[in-house]
Amino acid sequence: AGIGKCVALDLARRNARTILACRSRERGQAAVEEIRAATGNPAVLLRLLDTSSLASVRAFARAVLREEKRLDVLVNNAGLTGLPFAITPEGLEQTFATNYLGPFLLTNLLLG
Length: 112
Known about the structure:
By secondary structure, the chain is mainly alpha-helical. It has one domain: NAD(P)-binding Rossmann-like Domain (Rossmann fold), CATH 3.40.50. The protein has helices spanning 2-13, 25-39, 54-67, 94-110, and strands at 18-22, 44-48. It has a two-stranded parallel ribbon with strand order 1-2. α3 (54-67) runs parallel beside α4 (94-110). The radius of gyration is 14 Å and the shape is globular.
């Protein structure tokens, strides 16, 4: 939803192979189908990613490195605010993990 979906739509309109990294399979698949229909680009894919989980970030990065020939653009758009204080299963504060640590780790894992 929001900015991430708009960016994905614009990239798909430019005929880019576009991977939507989403926490929710259902919402992500709906976005993929909407973007494919709007752009005619069949190369819009869904991959699951929860940036609050470093294990999820590592698994996502491994899959991208294994499955994709190259990565030209990475848009780190995950973010949340206003949630009650929570600790992730890995012992990290959830907002900090989601908004900073997860995207930082993902970027570093995907660098050549």
